[in-house]
Design brief:
Elements lengths: L2 H5 L2 E7 L5 H14 L6 E7 L4 E5 L2 E5 H4 L5 H12 L16
Parallel strand pairs: 1-2
Antiparallel strand pairs: 1-3, 3-4
Amino acid sequence: MSEEAAALPRVEIEFCTQCRWLLRAGWMAQELLTTFQDEIGEVALIPGTGGIFEIRSQGRLIWSRKAEGRFPDLKEVKQRLRDVIAPEKPLGHSDRRDPAS
C-alpha cells in the first residue's frame, strides 16, 4: 500500500459467512470505492458469523444490520460514511431527499 493510501481512512465491512452475505458486502465495497475513490485508502471485507453485517470507519460504526433491523440502502451508507470521512463532499443525486419526505 502506498503511503498516500495508508494515510486515508480504512472502511471495514464485516459480513456473516453463514448467511452468505459476501456478494452484498463485495458490491457495497465496490460502490464505496467508486464514490469515495479519493477519500478511502482501503476497504476490508471481514468474514464473521451470527448474522453480522456492520460497516465501520475511523473507529465509528457506520451501519449495523442488527441495530437498525434491516440492511441499509446504499444511499444511507454513502451519506453516513461521507459525514465521517469527507463532510464537505457532495454526493449528487444521493444527497437529494425523496419528494415524499
